[in-house]
Amino acid sequence: MEHETRAVRGVRIVLISNVLMIVLQMFTMAALARLVTAADYGLLAGSLVIMRLIQHLLTSGPERAVLLLPGLGLPVLAAVFQALCGIGLAAGLLLAVFAGLAAWAGWSPAFFLTLAALAPLVPLATAGVVFRAVLRRHLAFGPLSLADILAQVLGGGAIALVTAWFGWGVYALVAGQLTATLLQTLLSGFFACRAGFVRLTGAPARRWPVLKPVARSSLTISTTSFLEVLGGQFPVTIIGTLLGSAPLGLYNRATALVQMPLELLITAVTRVRIGTVSAQRDDRAALVPACGEVVSVVTAILLPLCAGMAAAAPSLTATILGDDWQGAAPVVAWMAVITAIAMLGHVFGMINEGMLRFQDRFRIQLFYMVCNALGLAVGGWLAGIGGALAGAAAAGVPFLLLHMRLVASCLDVPFVRLLPPMVPGTITAVGCVLAVELVAPLLDGLMPPVQLMANIGVCALVTEGIYAIFFSALNGQLLRYAGLKRLAGGE
């Protein structure tokens, strides 16, 4: 019961933290836009593409391996920490030397000098991997979120703004990035060490035997994660190459409009709940309902939101993007469908990762990447942007089904046992679409913002009505996640 209470509190903390981070980032962006030029932002953005890829390859695998692998005692964690510090320092030094030589040789000096200045991000990020993983493992999302918020306020906010005020240009943005990452690592390290979750010294003399399972799992996870990042670039590349810049612009705006709020909500659940699934990996009686709860909660949030976005795409697009972007409405609708399928498949994939099925997840991700590329290319060639997105949606179906089949195999249950947790969200999604279509004639001629607010209100009433009447236990769980304890009947 205590574990469940901490998990619910963790979801709430992560959700609030995500909202605060977005607000802080928007405020900082608005202020910096008046102090730094677009060219400076361009230099930072281009450099961060390379930096994020390097950081992703070096940190995503080890962090999830430390989070998921059993039996990692303090000596093993100390060995992992020291190894990651060494790898990060070596990678950061190599990057700085390469970028410095490139700038000295005259290859776009402004860009490569910015990249060299960002090189310390690599060791700073790798040094914080173990700290963040053990805090997540112990459901200490309060300290972890506090570290993220303070780093954003003091580093990405205050330092960047002060240095930009003094005319540092792009290096003000670099200073903000470096300070934020440094503070994240120091604060998360302080919280993890104070709680006794990790120790910086005391690694065994023979390190490779204890590092080998972590290294092997990290490599597989990093490779899968790299495929996800690489596959995420396929739509941009294929649509831009086949169809040109205008359809690519529609796709870019539609993607941002649909995915940002969904990722905000879904990651708040999965970051916490996948850890609880992993913790119950050896308890079959508790594992099956734990997986069912993750799927039930995710689909209850994801499917009605995607259905509502698809049905209300014209008013949503006109309100958020403006009348000039009305051509993006069908793309927004398709993106809602694609996101629902792909994100649900990703959740099942994370459950498989929690079961330590790293190799299987890699194979499924590779298959999906190929299918997605083919669907986009063939669909775009035959029917333009709509055909490309239809092909992407079709490619997501086997991705979802293969991950569901693997989860059923891990749990040793029939495939159909995975379907009931998805029923509430599916029924509510259908209800949202029908409700939006029914009220559409009544809203015809009204301003888009009014239509959008009406559509949101109708979907909210339908969703809460269905959950409260037919799925009260699920409704109570969702209300507890939102912090509405009294409506949910207590903690």
Structural class: mainly alpha
Tell me how many strands there are. Answer: 0
Query: What do the pLDDT scores average to?
Result: 87
Helix percent band:
over 70%
Radius of gyration: 23 Å
Shape: globular
- Beta-strand proportion: under 5%
Number of domains: 2
Q: What oligomerization state is this entry in?
A: single chain
What string, H for helix and E for strand, traces the elements in order?
HHHHHHHHHHHHHHHHHH
Largest sheet, if any? Answer: none
> How far is the first residue's CA from the last residue's CA?
10 Å
Which stretches of 5+ consecutive residues score pLDDT under 50?
none
Helix tally?
18
Question: Short description, anyone?
Answer:
The chain is an all-alpha fold. The protein has helices spanning about 1-30, 40-70, 75-105, 110-120, 120-125, 130-135, 140-165, 170-195, 210-245, 245-280, 285-310, 315-320, 330-355, 360-410, 425-445, 450-470, 470-480, 485-490.
Task: Explain this structure.
47% of the residues are buried. The protein starts with a helix and ends with a helix. The protein has helices at residues 2-32, 38-68, 74-104, 109-118, 121-127, 129-137, 141-165, 170-194, 208-243, 245-279, 284-311, 313-320, 329-354, 358-411, 423-443, 448-470, 472-481, 485-488. The chain has two domains: 2-205, no CATH class; 231-486, no CATH class. Helix 2 (38-68) crosses helix 6 and helix 5 (121-127) packs parallel to helix 8. The model has no long low-confidence stretch (mean pLDDT 87). It is mostly helical and 491 residues long. 84% of the residues lie in helices and 0% in strands.
